[in-house]
Task: structure prediction
Amino acid sequence: MIGEIPAVVAGEAARQETAGSALRPILVFDSGIGGLTVLRELRTIMPDRSFVYVADDAGFPYGDWEEAALICHISDLFARLIEDIDPSMAVIACNTASTLVMGELRQRFAIPFVGTVPAIKPAAERTRSGLVSVLATPGTVKRDYTRGLISDFAQKCTVTLVGSRHLAAMAETHLRGGRVDPAAVTAEIEACFVEEGGRKTDIVVLACTHYPFLANVFRKLAPWPVDWLDPAEAIARQALTLLPQAAARLPDGFDRAIFTAGPVDRATARLIHGFGLSG
Ligand code: DGL
Result:
């Protein structure tokens, strides 16, 4: 399952490019292209910084991985990424990974890590009906971490956890210009809409970074309007507070994207180019 980091980014050339503490980029990591929803907010809030986006498409989707195997896989991948990219910090733009591996990454590596976890606390603060749903991968839904967020911050709410097997892949298809079947999307999101004692779900937490790319599709298919909560901006603000002074924009540098499975198809190349990333 562990993909090789393409030779073009590995080794001395990459190290030289990012050498020197003033030139160290911020690494933004996801299993696929969902983390681009976080990258766009990071760039808005830190326009003078340099980023390397890493999509672990060799391991995608993370939602079904067994927990111990996923921890080892991501931790070992990071050992190579940190060696090759020498980032000043890393943003784990993936709920499925963050709810599992943050402790291991922080223990093993010296750089600051910012995670992405389900926005249950802000949802509990904002809901008026008291009915909140969390739409996530099957992995995120079953994590102890997620259950902990509910018991710590949302005890007064009814929280419905909805684990979707297919939405992350659908978001990838949608973003590459492919067709997504509305009936299939409806089947994935309908459990989010709960009616109880005259009250209705009013907030759905988008607890997978892929899902904001489908938010407009969700809005059209929803049986009633809800607030689709995307935490990307909050993650970017958190990253800004932890940003070491050493991180800075590379002179004349485009931000780069790395796909762990190797060369990407044309649609993906177009997509990353559209995000201002070089392959
Ligand atoms: N984008 C990832 C997340 O936030 C997960 C997608 C997947 O690998 O299933 O959870």
Remarks:
- The two ends are 22 Å apart (CA to CA).
- The pocket of D-glutamic acid is lined by residues 30-32, 34, 60-63, 94-96, 137, 140, 168, 208-210 (CB under 6 Å).
- The chain has twelve helices and twelve strands.
- The domain at 120-230 is CATH 3.40.50.1860 (Rossmann fold).
